[in-house]
Design goal:
By secondary structure, this protein is mainly β. It has one domain (about 5-65, about 85-135). It has one helix and ten strands. The chain has one helix at about 10-15, and strands at about 5, 25-30, 60, 65-70, 75-80, 85, 95-105, 110-125, 130, 140. A five-stranded antiparallel beta sheet has the order 1-8-7-2-3. Strands 4-5-10 form a three-stranded antiparallel beta sheet, with no helix packed on it. Strand 4 and strand 5 (about 75-80) form a beta hairpin. The longest helix has 7 residues, at about 10-15. The protein is globular, with a radius of gyration of 15 Å.
Length: about 140
């Protein structure tokens, strides 16, 4: 599984209410251009791959999104969702390396973080690329 990397502005946007992990709609978009963690703040900063062959600009909507404590009194909170995927149809989905997670509810689509797959990924016709969220969710945070 690729590591999840936070954008620097994510904490600020979370604390000021621009990102609400309980109520917002979240999406995942694909990019082949390395995001700049220190300055990127919204989806418009991301260079998405072309809208074609099973990829729609803006990406896929995350489902079964949850924010829950991992166990009573642990102080460890986990943000998670169901696995999500793209299937190539009518041709390959453009090469990508980054899966970017963002809040689609905010008017400026605030960025949370991204998975870096470490190299080019290409989904050929008829094949599916699935992001396996795993038991630890997208991320966990511990209360101070």
């Amino acid at each position: 599984m690729a590591a999840f990397i936070f954008f620097d502005e994510c904490i600020f946007n979370s604390l000021n209410g621009a990102i609400d992990y309980d109520t917002h709609t979240f999406k995942a978009a694909l990019s082949n251009t390395a995001p700049t963690v220190a300055t990127f703040d919204e989806l418009a900063d991301i260079t998405e791959i072309a809208n074609a062959n099973g990829y729609t600009t803006g990406g896929v909507t995350l489902t079964s999104v949850t924010l829950a404590e991992t166990g009573g009194g642990t102080g460890i909170w986990q943000w998670s969702c169901a696995d999500f995927s793209w299937t190539a149809s009518g041709g390959s989905i453009g090469t990508f390396q980054y899966v970017v997670i963002y809040s689609d509810t905010s008017t400026t689509d605030k960025l949370i973080g991204y998975y870096d797959y470490g190299g080019a990924v290409n989904i050929t016709t008829g094949n599916t690329f699935t992001v396996d969220i795993g038991a630890s969710g997208i991320f966990q945070a511990q209360e101070p």
